[in-house]
Design goal:
By secondary structure, this protein is of the alpha+beta class. It has two domains: 3-83, no CATH class; 93-182, Lipocalin (Beta Barrel). 40% of the residues lie in helices and 26% in strands. It is built from five helices and eight strands. The chain has an eight-stranded antiparallel β-barrel, surrounded by four helices. Helix 3 runs antiparallel to helix 4 (74-83). It is globular, with a radius of gyration of 17 Å.
Length: 184
Amino acid sequence: MRRRDLIILLGGAVAALPTAAGSQQRDQTQYSDLFEKAKIGYAKISNPNEVARSGYITRLARMREKAVKAKSEDWEAIDEEIKRHPAPKDSDSKALSRLLVGKWSSPRHDYLYRADGTWTMIPIEPNIAHGTWRIEGNQYSDTIQYSDTADPSEPSSRYTIILITKNDFVFADQTNVFYETRLK
């Protein structure tokens, strides 16, 4: 199992929690309206530059966080929209790598990305999941191993980077979008 698969399981469980019908309808309307306004606003920009794209993705990421907390199903539509706007293929790999170095939190685990291209789940303990990572253009890949003596148990997983900022790391595979936020 890839480490990202654990996040997917958690995301699906949160979205599937039952809610009261009236509350759910209000939340659906609220997030649907905000989401549509954001999409329309971004579509009005004739030639969006990287600053506009990055700002739009950041706005959608915050909207998604709120939708998940409110148990709104809009998070799925937001994910689909986010996947439509990946980082440019010719992104500066070194700059993105520098931004990724540090401690990050996903819905399931916390991670430490080191400048030497290694990562580990934190808190660091014996035999904790760890591996290597690499960025090339807008592509992020990682390997994973579960013990200090074993070879990586799975081949490299490859993802498309949507956004890396000082606070957000958003990336996707063919099906899912993954979110990590920087730990203070």
